[in-house]
Structure formats: C-alpha cells, structure tokens
Write a structure and sequence with these properties.
CATH architecture of the largest domain: 3-Layer(aba) Sandwich
Strand content: 15-25%
Distance between the termini: 51 Å
CATH class of the largest domain: Alpha Beta
Largest sheet: 6 strands, parallel
Oligomer: single chain
Number of helices: 23
Radius of gyration: 24 Å
Helix content: 25-40%
Structural class: alpha/beta
Number of strands: 19
CATH topology of the largest domain: Rossmann fold
Length: 583
C-alpha cells in the first residue's frame, strides 16, 4: 500500500471552477482562496468556532486536509511542509485553547523565518471582548511572534485578506501570518470575487535589489583580503540562492561555513566547506572565523550560538552582512559593509563583479590543514552503541540524500555534525526557538511535501514523547517517515550542561520511566524496532528502509555521551572543549 499523500490538482479546469464568481459563505471563500494560492495540503484540528469551515470541507474533494492529534502537531507539520517545499504552510485551529496551542509553533516559525498562514476561528463578532466560551485574543497574544495578523470583521474582506496574507508570509523576510475568523464571518455569505492582482501594500516594500556601491565595496574587500571567510545561513536556503552561492564560492575561492539552519545550502563534500560554526561547530570553522580578516555573512543573523562572546567574535575581521531584513544588520555585530537585499539577487549581481581572492592561497592551505588535523571525532565502541555512529549509519546508507528532521537536544547536534547534506531543503530543525516536540510532526509535513523522497525523523526520547500521538497520522495515511529515536534515558543536553557547568548536580533529567517505544509504535499500528548494538542497529535500520510504510527504530545508546566540540557559556568560539580529541 503506497503513501496516501495528496497530489497537487491545480489544473486549469479546477482553477476555473474555484474562481467562478458566486454568492457563497465565508468558509467556502476560505477554502477556494487557499486552493487558488496553490495550497495542496492543510493541517488542522476542528472545534466549535471553525465548524462552518469544516462543514464546507465535507464532500469538497479538491481540498485536502490532514487531521492531526494536537494543534501543536498541526502547526509543526505545516512548518516542516514549508521548510521542505519552499511553499507556504497552512494550518487551522479553533478558538481559545485550539488557538493558544498554536503559539509555540508560531514562535518557532517566526524565529526561523518560515512562511506560514495560520487560520484560527473565534467567537461570534458580537461576543468578542465578553470573555465568551473559548474566547482568546489570539491576535494580541501572538502579536510579537507574527509577521502580521488579521481579525476579519466582514466576510467581504476575507478573499482579499487571504491573498495579502500569502504575499506577506512569503516575501521579504518570510514568516507566519495569522488570520482570525469569527464564527459569524465564516457563516455569512457574499459574492466571491477572487483576488488575483499583485498585492501592493502601503508601507510594505521589502528591498530585494542591493545598493550597487555596496556590492562594489564587497568585491574590493575580497581582492584585499588575505584570510576571507563566509558564513552562510538559512537565508540562502529560503531565497533559493544555493546555486548562486556555489558560484560565488567557486569564483572567489573563499572558505565557507554554514550555520545550523544553513546546512544543505552548500554541498558538504566541497573542499572549501568547513562544517558548522559556533557552540558545537567544527574546530576549523571557529578558528577560521576568529582569525579571518574579512567575514562575509550571507543570510545569517549572528545569533549567540554562532558568535559566543560577542566582544571577542571575529576580532580581526572586516564584517560584510548580506540580509533581506535591514533590522538584522548591525543588531549583534557591528557591520562595515551592509548589503540589504534578497540573498539570491545579491549573489547573482555580486557574481558579475567579484574575482578570486588571490592573496588567500596560504589561508586556503591553513584551512585544509585544520580540516585534516581536527575533524569531528568521537571514541567509538563495540561494547555500547554510540549516537554519533548511529547518525553515520543513517548517512552512509542514504548517501546524504534523505530529508532529515530533528527534535532539539544532543541528537540534533549529532545529526548536524555527522549527516552530510548535499542539497537545500533537506534539513528541517528548530534553530532559533529550540522547540522540543518539533521533530516528528515536522517530518510528516516534509514527507507530504516530498512524497517521493526518504524522510528521516531523528528524535530524542524526551522530545518524541511531546508529539508521539501523531504516530496515528502516519499509520492511518501510511506516511512512510522513518522515525529514529536516540534513547539515552535522560534529557541529554541538560545532563551535559549539568555535568560540565553545574558540577555534576543532575537535577530532574531522568527519563527512565519512558514507554517502551516499540510497543508504543505497535499500539498505533506502526512497525517498531529496537537496537542495542551495531549488529542489531544495521539490521534494524535496513529493515526500516526496506519497509514501505512508517517505521519507528529505537537505538539504545550510552547515557553519558557528550556533544563535542562545545564552546562554554561566556567563552569566545575558539575556546572549545574538544572532549575525546583532548583526551
């Protein structure tokens, strides 16, 4: 039985049907408008305030909806769908607790610049502000974590609002937009006249084309630099600028590091790629940043996990920052050459101007030497299963071609370190907010966006329990996600910090009472497998790959394994604890 994943059905005939002007309800306007925006899958959970909307779905075969088992699962699935496809993710929830259950997912998308349209129901317009049953001011609650919010007051405005929302979510610095629809608005009828004209909003005009003089300054700085370095972030992926970035690196010969959200923006096998920077980055990346005389930030935001101690970051470097959001430039790190614009557009223009960094030959040799001398390393074992080895197994058997989603914690860092990505939109993880419970439902969304690709969800035993109920979705729809659980029976990253920083005072981290994950999987109708050594691991993982449907594979690993390198709190990024390498 194949995966029952919706296919896009936006044929000309269907679009003509959806665009037909007629008097229909707000709920029908919503569904048609979503289809006209190219939405092929919506994740949601019904409730009283959205019952008219769900009633409009009844018998509407063109509209595809996935019933998750929790609103947080719905929004994380929509988020994973957006990150893995480049399209806008959409979810629906009812008023009150349904809407507030979306808040963590909205914040997750906002921090990582993911385009979502979040649709919530609300009580009747006449009851707003009266503390009615299941009323919550969701537009007020989410104001700091949305790019824009709408409270729809008139059904006549609904079609235009939806069209605007998709434009705002997916242009400039992308992000979540919320549309709150009172119950009476979803019930009221009006003439549906679809909005198809380009959106022009007063005061909203994101700059995409850079200042030519600043690009010229960048080209000149490259010619003068002896130790240039590139940091590429998620903005490269979101702009579709990976090919332009590759050309830029090839033309200039500048070494490049990719941030956690930038993984896949540049092929990991390239000789100039140095790995990930920052708290758990490579020795090469961190040393190169600290010793560089020109640091070119392309679509990253200089967050604290990359910079470490701010006043000791890249102390010798002239800073170039390319970003679509002018608010990010100079926010954390003083910038010498600011370039505001769409990353892809900026790089395409820059590629016509820049030349090879001719003075950096010795620097490239130094980078190569660091990579050879101090790669990521760990002490392997034939007695116990090491989590790093597990990730290497996943990488080797899939040749780095899978879409990998993760939860948050040690397993997330090991996946980032040891899985080698070759293409963009293959890595889905919560970076800025660090949301536990994100990994598994985001994999469902990623799989539905890419039905023909292998999707692996890597989770810890802690985060897996936060959204494990979504196993039902995989079972019912035969969504073939391979769900990996790295089980060390503790909150691993918290334990690591308590060991290294809090003098081994292990406080409330024991997860030994977790369920039997194999039996849990089987309870939902999903195949469950367990491995405690290398032989079992290889056999179980191959069985998972050979199984056409969803599979849970639990790898029981050593409890006291740490993620290295690690930059301690308050240190500069060249002050790394190397762990096994130091020993």
């Amino acid at each position: 039985m194949g995966a029952q994943i919706p296919e896009v059905r936006s044929t000309d005939e269907l679009r003509e049907r959806w665009m037909k002007p007629e008097v229909i309800s707000g709920s029908e306007i919503l569904l048609r408008s979503l289809l006209l925006e190219g939405v092929d899958c919506v994740f949601g959970y019904p409730g009283g305030a959205v019952l008219y909307i769900y009633d409009a779905m009844y018998g509407f075969e063109d509209f595809k909806h996935v019933l998750t088992r929790h609103e947080q699962g719905a929004i994380h699935a929509a988020d994973g769908y957006a990150r893995a496809s480049g399209k806008v993710g959409v979810c629906i929830a009812t008023s009150g607790p349904g809407a507030t259950n979306l808040v963590t997912g909205i914040a997750t998308a906002y921090m990582d610049s993911v385009p979502l349209v979040v649709i919530t129901g609300n009580v009747n317009s006449s009851l707003i502000g009266s503390d009615a049953f299941q009323e919550a001011d969701i537009t007020g609650i989410t104001m700091p974590i949305t790019k824009h919010s709408y409270l729809v007051k008139d059904v006549k405005d609904l079609a235009g609002i939806i069209h605007e929302a998709f434009h705002i979510a997916n242009t400039g610095r992308k992000g979540p937009v919320l549309i709150d629809i009172p119950k009476d608005v979803s019930a009221n009828k009006t003439l549906f006249e679809p909005s198809t004209e380009p959106v022009i909003l007063r005061g909203y005009n994101p700059r995409t084309v850079p200042n030519k003089l600043q690009v010229d300054r960048l080209a000149q700085a490259i010619q003068e630099a002896e130790r240039p370095m590139i940091i590429a972030g998620g903005g490269v992926v979101y702009s579709g600028g990976h090919e332009a970035l590759f050309e830029f690196v090839e033309k200039t010969g500048i070494p490049i590091t990719t941030t956690l959200l930038g993984l896949g923006a540049f092929p990991s096998g390239h000789e100039l790629w140095t790995g990930m920077p920052g708290m758990h980055g490579t020795y090469t990346s961190n040393m190169a940043i600290q010793q560089s005389d020109l640091l070119i930030n392309i679509g990253a935001r200089f967050d604290d996990r990359v910079t470490g101690k701010l006043d000791g970051f890249a102390p010798h470097a002239k800073i170039v920052h390319i970003d679509i959001d002018p608010a990010e430039i100079g926010k954390n790190i003083a910038t010498d050459i600011p370039i505001v614009g769409d990353v892809k557009t900026v790089l395409e223009i820059a590629n016509k101007e820049v030349g090879r960094a001719e003075r950096a030959d010795a620097w490239r040799d130094q980078i190569k030497q660091w990579k050879q001398e101090k790669p990521y390393s760990y002490t392997d074992s034939d007695e116990v299963l090491k989590p790093q080895w597990v990730v290497e197994l996943l990488n080797d058997t899939t040749k780095g071609e899978a879409i990998v989603t993760t939860d948050v914690g040690q397993h997330q860092m090991w996946a980032a370190q040891y899985y080698k990505f070759n293409q963009p939109r293959s890595w889905v993880t919560s970076g800025g907010l660090g949301t536990m419970g994100f990994g598994f439902p985001s994999a469902i969304g990623a799989q539905m966006a890419n039905p023909d690709r292998l999707v692996i969800s890597i989770n810890g035993d802690g985060g897996m329990q936060m959204c494990s109920q979504e196993l039902a979705i995989c079972a019912i729809n035969n969504i073939p996600v391979k769900i990996v659980i790295i089980n060390n029976e503790v909150l691993g990253m918290v334990r690591q910090w308590q060991e290294l920083i809090y003098e081994n005072r292990y406080s409330h981290i024991d997860l030994a009472g977790s369920p039997d994950f194999v039996k849990l999987a089987e309870a939902y109708g999903v195949k469950g497998l367990r491995a405690t050594n290398k032989e079992e691991a290889e056999r179980a993982w191959q069985e998972a790959l050979d199984t056409p449907g969803p599979v849970v594979v639990e790898f029981v690993v050593r409890k006291d394994e740490n993620v290295y390198p690690m930059v301690p709190q308050g240190a500069t990024i060249d002050q790394m604890l190397m762990g096994d390498a130091e020993e």
